[in-house]
Design goal:
This protein is an all-alpha fold. The protein is built from eight helices and no strands.
Amino acid sequence: MLWPFNHFRKPLASPPGTIEAIYGMIVAQAREPLFYREMGVPDTVDGRFDMVLLHLWLVLRRLRAIEGGAGLSQALFDHFCSDMDANLREMGVGDLTVPKRMQKFGEAFYGRAAAYDAALQAGAEPLAQALCKNVLDGRDIAQARHLAAYADAVIAASAGLDDAAITGGMWKFPSPSPFAARA
């Protein structure tokens, strides 16, 4: 017998595999070697974490504009947290330390998201400065400008996409190649 109160459940914001697909796209793009080889992002655990945060922020920012996007945003952020928790445990971080590290991850995300949102409203140069501080450890504003141009391109490309394509995970990030500084 089916549970008689199933019609009271909150409907799913997206098909079950969509969150995993979108998060997989975020992680795959964050691992793009060009960011590390040619755009100055440190190829370290912290540098890779910052690139995941940047791409997560870009996607969550787009989801804000979609009716019902809040549920999908929350599910995506929860998946990110689950992934970070699993990675910590895989790296051998103890059970007592994981919650403290997870709190720091959350603070890092929300701090960067607030900084990027404020910077984006102020213009291209403030976004480059925020990216320089958070992603490039304050070392290379010229590279940060390339990274900011890439972020602007992601925002523009995602704004041009149909809401159903975004929520269904049927899109791709633009290539960072045109924004990389070539020596």
